Amino acid sequence: MIFSEASLVTVDNSNENIEPTDHQSGFHAERTRRLSAIDDLRNTGVNPYPYRFDRTHTLNELREKFASLEAGNETDETVSVAGRIMLKRDQGKLIFVTIRDRSADIQLFISKSVVGDVQFDVINNLDLGDWVGAHGLIMTTRKGELSVKVSSVDLLSKALRPLPDKFHGLTDIDTRYRQRYADLIVNDEARRVFEVRHATISSFRRTLSEREYIEVETPVLHIEAGGAHARPFVTHHNTLDMQLFLRIALEL
């Protein structure tokens, strides 16, 4: 039977509205709770930071491969996927989890009758921001949402810090620049900028390498200040007992 997610209610996770930059009691209480959850997982034999997980597809590969799968259908193809929990919704004996990797999002359809009581309880206690791996069959809901009908879930990495508010996101410019890890998790546009930058630099490197250029590393600290009239950053090298200047002009 294929269930609709139309009547789902959102799980009241108190960590959803806590900003990563909030150093008040709410943030510290949440971090303490998650540290305690790690101890509980270990006591039940669950490794919160396993060494390996083999996935069969990225989430975008799944979306491309099964883009034509009609609503309400289920395949017999078993897949293994991994991603960060971005949303979790509870409907009694069913849990719907949205996970995200670098390429896309996908929904996990988790039934207590399939995964069993013990694993269902473990999944139910996972937090937003945790990384999980899931095994299962590809299906679509009656509304056409591509999903993985989960047979088992592995916790890959337990998150200690809560994600930014899912509605307001991370909008403070200073916080975004100082905590890039949070910015790249929740802001798709910021992540795309880094992806384009990476692709551009990689293209330059490939082109120059094909023309037999050799990439070399030049010193970051100099004994003389460069950069014309720019005010240099000055530091002291303890071992050599000498004053050094951070380079400003990369060509020097």
Helix content: 25-40%
**Overall average residue pLDDT:** 85
The helix tally amounts to: 7
CATH topology title of the largest domain = OB fold (Dihydrolipoamide Acetyltransferase, E2P)
- Output the structural class: alpha+beta
Count of individual beta strands = 9
Radius of gyration: 24 Å
* % residues in beta strands: 25-35%
Written description of the protein model:
This protein is an alpha+beta fold and 252 residues long. The protein has three domains: 9-157, Beta Barrel (OB fold (Dihydrolipoamide Acetyltransferase, E2P)); 173-210, no CATH class; 217-252, no CATH class. The chain contains seven helices and nine strands; from the N terminus they run E-H-H-E-E-E-H-H-E-E-H-H-H-E-E-E. The protein has helices at 25-43, 59-65, 112-115, 117-124, 173-178, 180-186, 188-210, and strands at residues 9-10, 74-91, 94-100, 105-111, 131-140, 146-157, 221-222, 234-237, 242-246. The strands form two sheets. A five-stranded mixed beta barrel has the order 2-3-4-6-5. It has a three-stranded antiparallel sheet with strand order 7-9-8, with no helix packed on it. A hairpin with a 5-residue loop joins strand 5 (131-140) and strand 6. It is extended. Mean pLDDT is 85; it is low at 1-18.
Give me the secondary-structure topology.
Elements lengths: L8 E2 L14 H19 L15 H7 L8 E18 L2 E7 L4 E7 H4 L1 H8 L6 E10 L5 E12 L15 H6 L1 H7 L1 H23 L10 E2 L11 E4 L4 E5 L6
Name a few traits of the molecule.
disordered N terminus; 27% strand; alpha+beta; 252 residues; three-stranded antiparallel sheet; OB fold (Dihydrolipoamide Acetyltransferase, E2P); five-stranded mixed β-barrel
